[in-house]
Amino acid sequence: MARAAKGSATTAGSAKTAAEQAVKAALDPYRRKRDFAKTREPAQGGDAGVGGLRFVVQKHHARRLHYDFRLELDGTLKSWAVPKGPCLDPKVKRMAVQVEDHPLAYGDFEGDIPPGQYGAGHVIVWDKGQWLPEGDARSGLRSGKLKFELRGHKLQGRWTLVRMHGKARQEERQPAWLLIKEQDAQARPLDEYDLTEAEPDSVRSLPAAPGAVAPEPAPETAPKPARASRRAALPDTLQPQLATPADHPPAAAQRADWLWELKYDGYRLLTHIDAAGRVRCFTRNGHDWSARLQPLVRALQQLPVRACWLDGEIVVEGEQGAPDFQALQNAFDQGRTEAIVYWLFDAPFLAGEDLRDQPLALRHAQLQSLMQAVPLPPLLRLSEVFDAPPESLLAAAAKLGFEGLIGKRVDAPYQSQRSPHWIKLKHRLRQEFVIGGYTEPQGARSGFGALMLGVHAQEGSRRVLRWCGNVGTGFDARQLGVIHQRLRAHESSRCPFDPPPAGMHARGAHWVRPVLVAEVAFGQWTREGRVRHAVFQGLREDKPAREIVREAPGVEPAAAPAPAQARAVPTVRHAPRITHAERVIDRHSGATKGELVAWYAQAAAQMLPHLKGRPVALLRAPAGVGGEVFFQKHAKEQQLPGVRQLDPALDPGHAPLLQIDQAAGLLQLAQLNTIELHTWNARSDRIAQPDRLCFDLDPGEGVAWECVQEGALLLRTMLEELGLVPFLKTSGGKGLHVVVPIRRGPDWDTAKGFAQAVVAHLARTLPDRFVQKSGPRNRVGRIFVDYLRNGFGATTACAWSVRARPGLGVSVPVGWDELPQLRSGAHWGLRDAPARLAVGNTPWAAMARSSRALGGAMRVLGYTPGAD
């Protein structure tokens, strides 16, 4: 035993020595940079946090003000320099450059680092407290994603550090990270509260951070019931409350009466739990799906409640976390329902009490209490309610990949019918259709070519099924086979549509009995009542075909309007006669000239704000993509309707520049085989003074798309550090465009010189990622950030312009939070871009008020106009 004890002591001593040596090695870079005979900074030492790991944020007035963010781990303070300091807004991602580890004693350091020493300047302890890692902190640091909770005086709640390129690279001495606030109760919008400005002082004199002790539970804030609930026998069946379609949210004066939930793309499900705890799951039409949902039934049996009806939606989550309707259907088709998640949002009956007469706020509060009483199985979720402007929520829902929003009055009872107290707002057109037939497959395709779609409508005393177009995209090979088998089981010799499709639309059609229902997303309704740009989403088994009608905002389905009231491509005054509309202009996609003209008619309302007041250059392709093209900046033809010829004095020695202020001009140019439209960085009223900068991220050979995304984030962070506000759009080609609004004042040479200095700084700082020189040889494996677009007469593809490349990509404004979801610079093409028009220019809504003077940015960058 003595030998064992001695051996244990030796092992413990060896481990301690190894840990001390590891700390010493980690602090060597820190010590080499400092002369401790001159600076009061601690060389070593310091105590570990009591009761938990410590964090400290030091405000450092060095050559440039920054904030040093430090986390205790393995005997040192892991450290990052955050130039602009932490921010409580989850939408704002702050650059954090990892620097050398610091000794634990540094967490208490305040004072002056003397001139001539590394980091010379004044230091204060701006915040301090405890930090709690989520999972293994060391693993998180190695993998490049560290999630944690802060309990400080100023910083609290959940945070994340993300390394900007994932795993560490050996050649990087100071890896770039992003410090991001997670969405929780401590999050606050930056335009509402700027923490670094509001609380600039030291916290050294304050006691331990209040968050170091777990906070008391928040008091119950749910409203009191307007009426007493009542004990009642649990009914065997229950019809769900349904939402009414709406095309806009309630008036501003009524917003306080509404709460908002995400609209889940799945199947509605009602759960009945009897007094003995037996669980049964029903569709909205009363079909018992308990046997098909056994994993979910087992999860529901774990809820500590009896005698209740619960209401919600079942979904399967896609790769990005948003519901994937096709994946849900596949789960049922394959009998694999273990991944189906149940989002609960209402409790009409709970614990033997009938809550249907109670206000929504109370029902939701009681459901929340139930689901927080015990740890929940991962298949059960509580649908979160939002008290926020629905316009911003709808845009956020679109970016997250959700179908839209459900609005609910907080004071309304639960009604087993379609009710105006629940409304649904969609950011894209999507609804169910009855399948009335199918067409023959073409080429190598098997099964069928397209499904023929219809909706029911009332014609006097008759209820008829109207044909409203076909859907031929969105299927994979397996679906083509499975759906074809189901179609053949319902084949009929009689056309179910009234009136029947005529001419080419009926050629080779196979009719089926109208019993199958398809869910379809589409771009718009035409004037004739047809769907355009339709994409199949899946078959629906929870809705009977007889109920399917044309959905119209604010109108219950039974009273859906006739097709003549459908939305159509906008009518454009002075629109030209389009010749050779059937001519294919892109062999890759098969798109025609007529489709191109139709796009510019649809997109005109979103595109004109980017064109108005700016000279425009045209890329014309008479032979289509792949043929000879030419670039036109000046007038060549006679005056065209909607195309303005500017004063020749704006560009002396040349024919007049062109400007497009009307939709008719777009169509005139499309008729003349114009595919791309490019705009200047200045307006024609002050053409000598640009009002924006454009940076085109052009990846060289061998650059992965993820590196382009990362490059855009790095450029954004640098521009923000300079005090500018960058905006993002897809290029429609290989890369991305970063657009920066500036106040008019600098001339073209100054603007271009500044842009070049920005790119030069990037190339010097990160030479393995960026290159300053153009040319294919120079940018192999790297990104050329094209600053040359900022000179007089230079242009960049206009937002919403089609690009003359295979596939006809479209340049689309996007939000920075959408960047991770983009698949390429041509994320949208001619045929799927119409669905994006519902989002429109919302990601750039703040551009007009985001212009900044360039002088401050030039001073921070150290750029002097005219200097070599």
Question: Can you tell me about this structure?
Answer:
This protein is an alpha+beta fold and 868 residues long. The protein folds into 4 domains: 16-212, no CATH class; 230-426, 2-Layer Sandwich (D-amino Acid Aminotransferase, Chain A, domain 1), CATH 3.30.470.30; 452-565, Nucleic acid-binding proteins (OB fold (Dihydrolipoamide Acetyltransferase, E2P)); 569-868, DNA primase, PRIM domain (Alpha-Beta Complex), CATH 3.90.920.10. It is 19% helix and 28% strand. The strands form 8 sheets. Strands 1-2-3-4-9-8-7-6 form an 8-stranded antiparallel beta barrel. Strands 10, 13, 14, 15, 16, 17 and 18 form a 7-stranded mixed sheet that branches. Strands 21, 22, 23, 24, 25, 26 and 29 form a 7-stranded antiparallel sheet that branches. Helix 9 (593-611) runs antiparallel to helix 10 (663-671).
Itemize the secondary structure elements and their pairings:
Layout (H helix, E strand, L loop, with lengths): L1 H31 L20 E9 L3 E9 L2 E7 L11 E10 L7 E3 L7 E13 L3 H7 L1 E8 L3 E8 L12 E6 L13 H4 L31 E2 L10 E4 L12 E6 L3 E7 L5 E5 L10 H7 L7 E8 L9 H9 L7 E10 L2 E2 L5 H13 L7 E3 L7 H11 L3 E6 L8 E9 L2 E10 L12 E9 L2 E10 L5 H13 L1 E2 L17 E3 L4 E6 L1 E2 L5 E2 L2 E6 L43 E3 L4 E2 H19 L3 E6 L9 E3 L10 E3 L12 E3 L2 H9 L2 E6 L12 E8 L5 H17 L5 E4 L5 E6 L6 H18 L4 E2 L11 E4 L9 E2 L15 E2 L39 H8 L7
Parallel strand pairs: 11-20, 16-18, 40-41
Antiparallel strand pairs: 1-2, 1-6, 2-3, 3-4, 4-9, 5-6, 6-7, 7-8, 8-9, 10-17, 12-19, 13-14, 13-15, 15-16, 16-17, 19-20, 21-22, 21-25, 21-26, 22-23, 24-25, 26-29, 27-28, 30-31, 32-33, 32-35, 32-36, 34-35, 36-42, 37-39, 37-41, 38-39, 38-43
Helix pairs in contact: 9-10
